[in-house]
Amino acid sequence: MAATQKVALVTGVTGQDGSYLAELLLEKGYQVHGVKRRASSFNTQRIDHIYQDKHENHVDFKLHYGDLTDSTNIIRIIQEVQPDEIYNLGAMSHVKVSFDSPEYVANVDGIGTLRILEAVRILGLEKKTRIYQASTSELYGGLAENKNAAGFYDENSAFYPRSPYGVAKIYGFWITKNYREAYDMYACNGILFNHESPRRGETFVTRKITMATAAIALGKQDCLYLGNLNSQRDWGHAKDYVEAMWRILQQDVAEDYVIATGVTTYIRDFVRFSFAEIGIELAFEGENEKEIAKVVACNNPDYQLAIGTVVVRVDPQYYRPTEVDLLLGDPTKSKTQLGWEPQYDLAGLVKEMVASDLEILKRQR
Ligand code: NDP
Ligand code: GDR
């Protein structure tokens, strides 16, 4: 390792963001250590392309088995790695699933953050190691009265989480801020709004939609069942958002930042945009559980669907006990202070996701 080479530790490296962040840090010349969980089947698909054989002379990407529920393991890894930067991305990140396993999500997403901060303190690395905490727009809970005068959520908006996930993440947010203030640690929250990519987990709504678009086009699926089509999300591209994470840790002063696009879109419209990518025009009709989407035009000779075919239905099993209706973030601070500028818009994101899912499904054929 070169004398000046920076060392980063990434929890959640096998996830969507962890994989893009690891790529970015390697490009920037870092030595990157990732924490992966032991699983009974392979869980490294997103990082296999950057894996380096341990037997090679110079290895910049290393994996460690670990779990955010295990303090001793976290302390040992941090002691061994002596990181300049820790990106705590590991989490049970599915909002709907958090209603089914609320205690687990509190342990991983809430107390897991404390375990990282305490490990750094126990090891006396407070002045060496900078910490990024993956906070989320779910902290705001979509409460209308908490938006700023312009109608956006920003760094000063009040929180009102609406799920066990959001409540666990609010602990992570405050404990990060508290350690910064109490022990003068460089520890920051990135309050990231939804961000997606071809590597998004298949049960999150965008990927579920783009996968189904491809599967329906190729005749592998008849209908896509979704939950609440009326919620609105501020969707960006994960590649842009990991760049913001890195920038947050390169400032002179540790602060918290909102990362968002400033544009919000209905789930229903994401469905429309996704099918439009393969030349299929949809019309929605009906309300609530009875809402459906039908094909009204088919402009692609490769993907012929009969006019009138119902391709989307609502299944209330996907509704959440409490929903976040609308998220819209104000990225002014991150743009001015971090110089962060996203490269993708929603159209580019949808295009890339649909193309990738078509490729994947065609290969499987
Ligand atoms: P993913 O769900 O794709 O990845 C989560 C990662 O955390 C995976 O590597 C997973 O491992 C790991 N993980 C889960 N449980 C544990 C545990 N007990 N100990 C250690 N690691 C664990 O999430 P994203 O990449 O989309 O998100 C990254 C982070 O950013 C998360 O903290 C998420 O809550 C937060 N966030 C995400 C946003 C988004 O829109 N994507 C927006 C705002 C915040 P495995 O692969 O084994 O399951
Ligand atoms: P979210 O993302 O809850 O915002 O959390 P998700 O894609 O799961 O849901 C977005 C919205 O779509 C509605 N929806 C459905 N959602 C899923 N998953 N499946 C469906 O079938 C479906 N139908 C409608 C949901 O009700 C919701 O309103 C994501 C995660 O990445 C979090 O970790 C992160 O913190 C936040 O984004 C910001």
Automatic annotation (TrEMBL):
MF terms in GO: GDP-mannose 4,6-dehydratase activity; NADP+ binding
Keyword terms, alphabetized: Lyase, NADP
Gene3D superfamilies from the UniProt entry: NAD(P)-binding Rossmann-like Domain (3.40.50.720), UDP-galactose 4-epimerase, domain 1 (3.90.25.10)
Enzyme Commission code(s) on record: 4.2.1.47
Coiled-coil regions, chain positions: none
InterPro entries: GDP_Man_deHydtase (IPR006368), NAD(P)-bd_dom (IPR016040), NAD(P)-bd_dom_sf (IPR036291)
Transmembrane intervals: none
Cofactor(s), names only, from the UniProt record: NADP(+)
GO biological-process terms attached to the record: 'de novo' GDP-L-fucose biosynthetic process
UniProt domain NAD(P)-binding: residue ranges: 9-353
UniProt KW Lyase keyword: yes
Catalyses which reaction(s): GDP-alpha-D-mannose = GDP-4-dehydro-alpha-D-rhamnose + H2O
Record-linked NCBIfam families: gmd
Family statement: Belongs to the NAD(P)-dependent epimerase/dehydratase family. GDP-mannose 4,6-dehydratase subfamily.
HAMAP family for the chain: GDP_Man_dehydratase (MF_00955)
Function: Catalyzes the conversion of GDP-D-mannose to GDP-4-dehydro-6-deoxy-D-mannose.
Name this protein carries in UniProt: GDP-mannose 4,6-dehydratase
Provenance organism: Flavobacterium restrictum
Gene it is expressed from: gmd
